[in-house]
């Protein structure tokens, strides 16, 4: 059985530093920053308590999205914007293709996951719906208009804008604070990450999956992938199914302690740290515990739509991604080895090119908007070669060749709905027996040897 995130990851309570400038941080605050940076380096994940985030708003948000996704399919299809690369509005099932389906380097990584920590190998597009809602101010000028497009406001939801803006801003605020603390802990300029985030195409991007339809264990709602953005924030979902991999290769069931958020590093954070922090891998699959929760919801007359409370924070599209500060300096081979986390199990293989001592070779200077476009092409949300220059993504090992998994009719409808893409896998089933949460202090990462 896979451990729960609440048992293996410490909780970082950021309440004490909110409202302080970095030059006012005391020793405890600095230890918090270092703990956050170390946890991101060692695991790719963080559990954070930000007292400003109103927990009740998560429920209002989930209630709203359950009603939204519960609408007839035709209604939701009106909200799709394929010509804007689905970066606003709805995305139907059968559209987004998990990166591992099209990326040989990730396929190799999948094969090397050890027994008990394996992923459900997806064979096609995800079974989930999604809704993308822009959060925060849009840039006055941008070379990437489709990433910064006007929002889609679904009909028949007068409360939509207020609730989506409110919950999105709360999660973005938490991630922005964490970015400041992580920068300090990483030894960067305190504002280095936050400045890049300013004007970024941040998205409140809930997924929606109907568990009445996707009702077999092993159905892949979102196949093994990393997120392409800077830092992803997850509030609580009402249904389990999200699994993350720590850098040491352990597969962990996401359980978020009450009042907390789970954050995971995305590709842009990997880029900015020259691979010191790796984008965290994860998947969403239907398991016995998902179905048990769906049965309970059905019996109580509640919605059986699994809605995620996800925010993708981004670097500004027109800003340049490159390894920052010390991460841009060439590492002697021995120093690079010393940076590796303790080996509990076999670590996931490094992305292609990451063994080079020169981080700018693996992570060349590139506008964030171009990096996003490349990734969107690879996962079939953007038409190949729409207008971006051809730059390969670190870890892909495939450049433009990563697009082979996109069928020509991508985005045209409901290829995956109800069918799912997974085959049943006994090893994929976890038990719901509640393990008591290990609430550890914010300093020090209680990861290695914690279980
Ligand atoms: O549905 C979830 O819980 C997370 C989905 C996810 O990984 C994604 O949207 O990138
Ligand atoms: Fe994801």
Automatic annotation (TrEMBL):
Annotated signal peptide: none
Keywords assigned by UniProt, alphabetized: Iron, Metal-binding, Oxidoreductase
Ranges of biased composition (kind: Gly residues): 396-421
SUPFAM superfamilies registered for this protein in UniProt: Clavaminate synthase-like
InterPro entries: IPNS-like_sf
UniProt-listed Gene3D superfamilies: B-lactam Antibiotic, Isopenicillin N Synthase, Chain
GO molecular function terms listed in the Swiss-Prot or TrEMBL record: metal ion binding; oxidoreductase activity
Keyword Zinc: no
Keyword Hydrolase in annotation: no
Residue stretches of biased makeup (Low complexity): 331-352, 436-451
Biased composition annotated in UniProt, kind: Polar residues: 425-434
Positions of region (Disordered): 331-363, 391-451
PANTHER family the record matches: 2-OXOGLUTARATE (2OG) AND FE(II)-DEPENDENT OXYGENASE SUPERFAMILY PROTEIN (PTHR10209:SF874), OXIDOREDUCTASE, 2OG-FE II OXYGENASE FAMILY PROTEIN (PTHR10209)
Protein name: Isopenicillin N synthase-like Fe(2+) 2OG dioxygenase domain-containing protein
Species annotation: Chlamydomonas incerta
